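This section describes the prediction task in plain terms. A model, or a person checking by hand, is given the sequence of a single protein chain and must write out its three-dimensional structure as a string of tokens. No templates, partner chains or ligands are provided. The sample shown here is typical of the held-out split.
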Amino acid sequence: MAFFSLLLLLLLTAHGTPPALGFTRSDFPPDFVFGAATSAYQYEGAVAEDGRSPSIWDIFTHAGKMADKSTGDVASDGYHKYKDDVKLMADTNLEAYRFSISWPRLIPNGRGAVNPKGLEYYNNLINELVKHGIQIHVMLYHLDFPQVLDDEYGGWLSPIIYFVTGGTAKCREDFTAFADVCFREFGDRVSFWTTMSEPNVIPADSYGSGTFPPGRCSDPFGRTKCTAGNSTVEPYIAAHNMILAHASATRLYRENIKLAVQMGVVGINVYSYWTYPLTNCTLGP
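The expected answer:
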């Protein structure tokens, strides 16, 4: 919250108000953007509307696995209030907005047919951002794996449970197909893509401690009462699959989509840690 407040102060400074904390917008490079970010499950709500199917988070939260028993059923109600939210961004002079696309809203079966209502929602949101001159950043995957695919082959653990010809994991194939839909449908207005969020955190929490869905873990590593899992093996399998899925989608964009039509960039979001000095002493010469 303090960081967000600083961003607002900086942005206000850029529009003629006194400097905040000694900083002005000119202290930052022109290509350094200030903005806001959300993830689909934590923002959209409307989990059972207009053809969206459940994600692993819906099943997890409805089983009461969150400490506060919360769910994303309503969340910030962004599915219905996105126009108001975009206006707030414009009114506070935010320069950019990063949101994630709900895989089970766009492709309810995890693969195959695209949901027209889901496609309409994301097109409307993107068009609203364009109208207000807000730079668009899209995160393809932020935690909400389609439950139907997790039931079918174990989600990010698919190599152990399900193989196809040549040993390619189904999760990699399905994620790449999902990414392909997003690139082709939205890429005429979106130039900044992130394949997935925190592949160094999700495997540990989903398959190590069990605090994220699908809540798999084993003693003595689990911090929840998991009924299945292997905390010494599964986090590494999931991380391996996520990196391969990222690589596959990135190659698709750079070699097929970008060169043919678009000139955007694609990358990945890795959670980074920082440290504080133990003391304020300095080293000698």
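For orientation: The beta strands are 35-37, 96-100, 135-141, 192-197, 265-269.
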